[in-house]
Amino acid sequence: MTTSAPARELLDAPPPPARPRTRRKRPRLPYLLIAPALLALLVGMGYPLGWQVLNSFREYGLAQQFGEAPAWVGLDNYIALLTDGGFWSVLIKSVAFMAVTALATMVIGIGLAVLMKSIPSWSRIALQIAMLVAWAMPIVAQMTVWNWLIDDRNGVLNYLLSYLPGVDLVGHNWLVDPWSFFAVASIIITWASVPFVALSVYAGLTQVSEEVVEAAQLDGAGGFQMLRRVTLPILRPILVILLLLQLIWDLRVYAQIELLQGFGAAGDKYDLLGTYIYGLGIGQGHFGVAAAAAMIVLVFTIALSWFYVRELIKEDQS
Amino acid sequence: MTTKRSPLRPLFTVLALVLAVMWVFPVYWMVNSSFQTSATISGLTPTWLPTSGSWTNYRAVFSDSTFSGALGMSLAVTGIALVVCLVFAFLGALAVSRFRFRGRKSFVLAVILVQMLPAEAMFIAQYKMISGLGLLNSIAGVSIIYIAMVVPFTLWMLRGFVAGVPADLEEAAMMDGCTRFGAFMRVTFPLLAPGLVASGVYAYLQVWNEFALASVILTSDQSETLPLWLRNFAQPSSLGMIEWGQVMAGSTLVAIPVIVFFMIVQGRMTSGLVGGAVKG
After folding, report:
1. Is the Cβ–Cβ distance between A287 and B124 less than 8 Å?
2. Using the beta-carbon criterion (under 8 Å), do A231 and B163 form an inter-chain contact?
3. Of A214, A301, B30, B182, which sees the most CB atoms within 10 A?
């Protein structure tokens, strides 16, 4: 497989041709070059990470707010979290939210990509531009405009839905019921993430070459067989990477949930992991327990990312 | 993926256009509402076109001193983070794609993994660090974290561009008498300009749009960046009213530069995220 420019050489790329003149100097130069980036990562990510690991084993209570040093409590913070029904409920909600949103995004995105393949180019370009514009919207602007769309009094959604026979939704607030609240969040995030999936899968589909398709047709492959034996195997790597990215991104929805809570009713019922950790740490000052909860999210994300990194490197090397 | 034309093609075309309208509608509605007066916007029926539009809402936003303050803050934070990040990431990308050295593999892995970390898994610790340094609500405090957040993907993108310029070109220039540094500056660097622009725009988008960390570190009204300003601007007044026209004007102002810049780099960004899985 040939690869695109930003992905040409990776971890096990062949060594650059030897340059005898500079060989003696070489060992120091690459370390000097990565030093600034490494330093930035150590300061902005490494140090906080170290703090977080240590402090997930310490207790921050009332005494610490008056300057007393936090005491070491071993695994107490983790035990407190894992025996707390509230944490489990947030964790399960977050994982379910992640799975449902990522799956919906993938299904709609793949559907749109297939659709784009079978329409005339002028309508495909219209759809692509619409997708790009939606994708480009900053999260705060997305959430603000969606909140205006679903506004209970003057929102256009309630106005349009009330045209359906037997439906009168004018004045209905979508953010009061927790189920409805999370459904709205999931729809907004799906709306915002589908373009990336649809455009990437479409790019993948255009690489299924005509010859391969014709050869398979000559060999008597029908529509379903074509999909199962030809198209899907070629698309598999891109689909795996996209699904992993969606899962990772749909777990980190602090900004969206926090903004939606700001517009609607705030409270424990509307929390996912991000807002839960915020409430524990910055809201209530329980930094030890918050650090432990953040560590759980971190480990979970790294586990998911590990698969992503492996796929990315595999693709880059092929 | 048959090459035959489906008899359903006209139906698919209509479906595609309906979907295009669905996807673009929220953005259209934002712009449309931003041109309407509060009287038309709070009417019982929506106004679908901004035909009787006015710039009143935009004037109101511009005359709001909190907007110009937030704009200044966003420009300062983005400017600092962008310049520092580009320099750091560029040097790192050179090292990773032009040299082989011990620890290179671990460095690249660390870079990709850091880029995947969610803000919420780190922001408590980052808040404690910045607050310990006495840098809450300061440009320096938020920039330190932003640089660390944006360097990884920028480095990853630039690595691809640097690797795309063959080292042979530099060798040839060195044969012709250039020093190693001279060869790099005269041959490789100009070829990397488009890559630097694309990566720079990407880094700009990340920092300009960032909300989660800003909401933790920049808590005072005087230090808010544009995303925080928009959130606060969209809060109901003491009477429980929201001036939706003005809020949408503010939202449009925040979104338009982002949409424009996004269009420039979209293709490059996608190939950075999915690696070689899509060959553009």
Report:
1. yes
2. no
3. B30
> Touching check for B204 and chain A: CB below 8 Å?
no
pLDDT tens by residue, A112-160: 999 998 899 899 999 999 999 999 999 999 999 999 999 988 899 999 9
Compare CB distances from A149 to B26, B129, B159 and report the shortest one's residue. Answer: B26
Tell me the two tokens of residue A241: 């990477």
Q: Which of B273, B266, B280 is nearest to A204 (CA)?
A: B280
CATH superfamily of B65-275: MetI-like (1.10.3720.10)
Residues of A in contact with B151 (CB under 8 A): 37, 40-41
Q: What is the pTM of this model?
A: 0.89
Residue B207 sits at the chain A interface (C-beta within 8 Å): no
Residue with the larger pLDDT of the pair A209 and A16: A209
Amino acid identity, residue B133?
L
Residue numbers of the domain that contains A166: 57-317
pLDDT in tens, B185-210: 888 888 888 889 889 998 999 999 99
What does residue A69 show for φ and ψ, rounded to 5 degrees? -70, 140
Query: Are the beta carbons of A119 and B2 separated by less than 8 Å?
Result: no
Query: Residue B167 — very low, low, confident or very high, per pLDDT cuts 50/70/90?
Result: confident
Chain B residue with minimum CA distance to A128:
B20
Query: Over the stretch A258-282, which tens digit does the pLDDT of each residue have?
Result: 999 988 777 889 999 999 999 999 9
Which of B41, B89, B209 is opposite residue A154, by nearest beta carbon?
B41
Domain ranges within chain B, ordered by starting residue: 9-56, 65-275
**Residues of chain A found within 8 Å of residue B83, distances taken between Cβ atoms:** none
Query: What part of B 230-259 touches A (C-beta under 8 Å)?
Result: 230-231, 234-235, 242, 244, 247-248, 251-252, 254-255, 258-259
Q: How many domains does chain A have?
A: 1
Whether residue B70 lies within 8 A of chain A, CB to CB, comes out as no
And the tokens for A6? 């930003």
Q: Which pLDDT value is given to residue B112? A: 87
CB-based contact B1 A139, cutoff 8 Å: no
> In which band, very low, low, confident or very high, does the pLDDT at B253 lie, cut at 50, 70 and 90?
very high
Whole-number average pLDDT of chain B: 88
User: Which helix (H) or strand (E) segment is A59 a member of?
Assistant: strand A58-59
**Separation between Cα atoms, residue A104 and residue A101, nearest integer Å:** 5
> Which residues sit opposite B115 in a β-bridge?
none
Task: State pLDDT tens for residues B122-136.
Answer: 999 999 999 999 999
What is the C-alpha to C-alpha distance for residues B94 and B88, in angstroms, rounded to an integer?
Answer: 10
Task: Give me the interface pTM, i.e. the ipTM.
Answer: 0.90
In this complex, which of B24, B234, B273 lies closest to A130 when CB atoms are compared? B24
Q: How far apart are CA A153 and CA A75, in angstroms?
A: 50
B211/A259 CB distance under 8 A: yes
